[in-house]
């Protein structure tokens, strides 16, 4: 099923998308997601009072309390194009603030601090059940998947003391996520996911690959975070991007560019780059 977060003009809510209608879900994601996952995606407290999709605005499927985690260096072809000759032996990770997140059709902030704003299509896992450093053994924690565009300010990727990850990855209104969550039961097991990922800029395909080429699969990424940081329902984990980014050829984003990031079986996330120096 497709689960969206939306604004109906009177507040923000969760709902199930069914054709051209939205069936509201009662409560926050922390209230309904654990039971949904535990029940095999059968137990969901919907109200039964549907609304037309055309009458609501879709938001990023992320609540204000969520953690936004990410990993990098997860596609070998991308690393090769950047000059790497040896495969990494461990994941590179980072965390974003909730203020970085925007939703479908929202404007990507184009901050004055960079002329090297880059796009990165990424499969994104959404956590459905709590996982802590004390959790023993494998846990079926996934609610499902969505799409993210991990916009980066590339001029901060190197420096005398290493990269400045905040300036590169945490800028306000710079990380589109959406357009909805597709529940994990709609896909093959997480370790076997092989979904097409594509990024288009003004209709031109810039990135195209499959998640089957990730160096670390979704369960391995979650296992990486588990001993380090507690995961709660609604937390999202960006799984890295593939080759074709602007960093490889100098073709960075500019004001007015239309960016579409797509993951097969989930959907298309469309955003427009705002004016350079805009505050968003």
- Whole-number count of domains: 1
Spell out the CATH superfamily.
Answer: Fumarylacetoacetase-like, C-terminal domain
CATH architecture: Alpha-Beta Complex
Counted by DSSP, the helix tally is 5
The proportion of residues forming helix, as a percent range, comes to: 10-25%
From the 3D structure, determine the CATH topology.
Fumarylacetoacetate hydrolase, domain 2
Number of strand elements: 19
Q: Strand share of the residues?
A: 35-45%
**Secondary-structure element pattern, one letter each:** EEEHEEEHEEEEEEEHEEEHEHEE
Structural class: mainly beta
Rg, Å, rounded: 18 Å
Query: Mind describing the biggest β-sheet?
Result: 12 strands, mixed
The CATH class is identified as: Alpha Beta
User: Stretches where pLDDT falls below 50 for ≥5 residues?
Assistant: none
What is the average of the pLDDT values? Answer: 94
